Amino acid sequence: MSSKDMTRAPARPATDAQPLRGDRFLQHIGEAVAQAVVGAERPLRLLATALLAEGHALVEDVPGVGKTLLARAFAASLGLSFARVQGTPDLLPTDVTGSSILEGQRFRFVPGPVFTNVLLVDEINRATPRTQSALLEAMQERQVSAEGETRPLPDPFLVLATQNPVELEGTFALPEAQLDRFLLRIELGYPGEDDERRIASRHQASAEPMSNVQPVHAAAEVRALREAARTIRVSDEVERYAVALVRATREQEDVRLGASPRSSVALYRAAQAWALLDGRDFVLPDDVRSLAAAVLEHRLLLDVDRELRGATVRGVVEAVLDSVPVPLADEPG
Amino acid sequence: MNRWVAIAILIAVLAVIASAPGALLVAVVTLVYAWLTRLWARFGVRRVQYSRRLGASRAVAGDMVPLDVMIWNRKPLPLPWVAADDLVSDGLAVRERPQLDRDNEVQGRRIMHNAWSLAWYERVVRHFHLDDVRRGVYEFGPVRIRVRDILGRDAVEGSLELPDRLVVSPPALPVRRSGRETSPLGERRARRSLFVDPALYAGVRPFQPGDSTRRIHWRATARLGRAVSRRYEPARGREVLLALDIQTLPGPHWQMTWDDQAFEALCTTTASLARRLLDQGASVGLAAASFTGTPQRYAWLAPQASASQLARAGALLARVGPICSAPFGGLLTWLTRRLPPGATVMVLSARDPRAFLPALRRLAAGGYSVELVCTATDAAEHVRHARAIGIHAAAASLVPSPEHPDAVVMAV
To answer: How many contiguous H segments (helices) and E segments (strands) does chain A have?
Structure first.
């Protein structure tokens, strides 16, 4: 049910003379991931944003668009330790966190796949709610409490969960509390015609495209970039704008449960990482707008009657973006 | 027209040679007329933009849905008369067009006719209202556009696909109980459960060959000095499948007659119960032996407890038609391949249940919890038949009236 890869040394070591820039980092992993995945620039950038903003990502789309491949290629390009858990109804929490086994007269803790840098939880909605909730502490606190002892998780730690929104049979919908813990929800969408032809020809040429993905950065570089992301400047206007967007979701009549204050933090942190990946040291209102859908959509709960009348979370976020005025550069204060 | 132009030119030449101004005037008038006609025939529908905007793509039965139609003449040539015949599905009532003619070319469509006179670069928007929409799926398009020239002759016509769809779900009304509530809706004790829930830890038992090592309780094993395995409670997750018996009149399933009011009441009751069950935290699914516009024999929605399940159920109920695709007993047998034993099968029917009571008994014997909800006017009689063989049954009715309901009352 789970598999674990060893950490690989990066093919492109960082130079001490010049600190790694966010845009170069994105370019490097983009080139590495492109060896296996075609045409997923925005999803990849969102994954990098989640990593640098110390969040987790939920990759949601129909079967066969490359959700799992993208997550695997992303982990491989970073040279981080990687583990995969396949969500099934009989998956137990201890299958994820680990458990103690008796050896002689002593117990020995066998760590589960969660003790890794990048954890791919494939088809998370096929796991039972109990197993899903076992991930909660790991995702939020970055630690695991098992057998009366708390163990910290490796740093960096990123959960990439995938789920298929179409097949509902035998699935357990993620509760709102857990959805809220995902920094971003990422949709891949179908590739364009040219991209699809490239995908087909690539699979003809190579049986396993993942074998071409080489690690280009190391964990230390990721940690350094993460620290850099925290220092990205967010002006008062942009901060007010991000908070106003989140608060506006609670006033929409289509919404039963608006975005939580955690969403404000998520939008703020994600915008910092997004700006860093653009090579800037300040956040623009456009960064916030670009991320609003990915950060907010999965945190909103629609009113049942409105949903019957065709309301969608995408429509709500678009309405919010239309209604909240964007701060302009020449605005006083 | 080319022949007339040639004749006019010939007359003009002869008129000039013969110095006959009258003939020349006739030739010039003919040429101008030919030129005008060709002008509208050639450019009439060019750069004419027609669009239709539905106020919503999803609605609930009884809603009013706004519909805007826009036409824009994006060229310097004025259009003295332009008409658009927009085809809409049968069954829609347009407030501003009380009478819609039936279309002869596309079956099941009516024509929403509009005509305008447009100056150059003029844009006109007309607002319509679809009143009191009924449950169903309504298609819009194609649109046929005709243009007449300045003399009122048909100049040119074109067509646009412009597809649109309006899905109208039945209303999901509040459900009230008239009797004493003994247990939550859809929850009855199943005879047995094949599954255990690892979330419900119930103690330990001696290790048995075949037990997974994941199930061994290592601490208890160390304490007791012998291998013991964890024991769990049976699964108690509430999974309710609403099985809709769409046949509303007695007789064979293939008959093409139905009671429209009873069928609509059945759909409304199903949507209302789905909402109530989802509110109570149950996983709710839906099944019916009905044609829904897909090749599948049965309409099927897998049980789920997510917030958007009611919208999915509503969309499926919008597509369900009153003609059976298979016998209802066949659907109940098919369900045993899709549902785990222990789940509740809630059957909703508007006819005498004696036709399918043996199938219900087989389901109950197979470990399913079976409940019957009768929605017919003589539901009390139907309930008695079901209870006589040990099937839990209740009568449901729409109040204050089946035509304009605001609640479902369940008589337990």
So the answer is: 13, 12
